[in-house]
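This week, think about what follows.
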Amino acid sequence: MYKFFAVWAGGLLTLLGASLWYVFTPGSVPEGQSPLVSLGAGSVGPFQTDFNRAADRIRVVAVLSPTRPAALAGATALQLLLMEFADLPILVQVVWEPQEESDWAPPPTEVLARLQDKRVKQYWDKSRRVSAVLGTGQVQVFSRGAAWREALPAPALAAESASAAAGTLRTFLQSVTPPAESDRPQVAGNAARAI
């Protein structure tokens, strides 16, 4: 009887330990992305460093809930936009933070996998430090050259939700994307034909 109880208790503890490990361990980002960064309670340092390091590119910052359906749909919308602008030099910083009662753990692998693009860097911000700095707007876009020194620079574009921002963001990205080679006038080719 004692052996049966010991085996049963051991199995229950193993199951409980595995469940806690699954819930509290951050998920894995897609292959090719930098590992998920957990921001400390007192600093946005790694986020700010990544933002400034990419000053030669457009930066898109999205602050999302890892469980809210609208935020997850917004992440998918961002991934679709990135596929449209596959050659654009851009950094997308996705900050997952607690916004709902269900957001008490870091995002799991299946949530992080909504953004497959290698130009995405994902963060877990349990203390909501980034959104405190950003203020209102779930999605903000920063132009090339904008640097975060004493204060965050003003965004070129801001939207309340990632899904709502998709159309506006597409228009903005089109305006800053150089025309494709096929869209440019064939000056050299025309000159060769004229000769």
Observations:
- The chain is about 40% helix and 15% strand.
- The longest strand covers residues 58-64.
- Residues 30 and 113 are 6 Å apart (CA to CA).
- The two ends are 99 Å apart (CA to CA).
